[in-house]
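Archive maintenance. Older records in this collection stored only the sequence; we are now back-filling the structure field for every entry so that each record is complete. The fields below show one back-filled record exactly as it appears after the update. Entries are processed alphabetically, and Cell division protein FtsL is next in the queue.

ARCHIVE ENTRY
Title: Cell division protein FtsL
Organism field: Sulfitobacter albidus
Length field: 116
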Amino acid sequence: MKSFLYVLTALGVIGLAFWAYRENYATQAALSETDDLHREIRAAHARLAVLRAEWAFQNRPERLRDLAQINFERLQLLPLHPDQFGYVDEVEFPAPPPLTFENGVDVSTMNAEDPL
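Back-filled structure field:
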């Protein structure tokens, strides 16, 4: 009986060692994947910072003004003035559609005790 208990204990230890070995490699793989994702996120942040800098550089007011002057003949862009804008109360909004009621209930012939 003791030998059976020893064999069962040894098999249990071997099984737990195998489980710990697999969990260790699964953990190492998850950590490696996490590091890869962090690296990709840092690269994406760096690309985004470069794109924002390029956007700011391309949208400098003096550059846009120069481009508008160079291409005036073709684009005919004019500067905006405050008097070109209107007020909301000057806008004519479309009339709302008329309300139509279907399956109406005539309340003039109903009693207070009658259920609907």
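Update note: The two ends are 82 Å apart (CA to CA). Helices lie at 2-58, 61-70, 72-75.
Entry marked complete.
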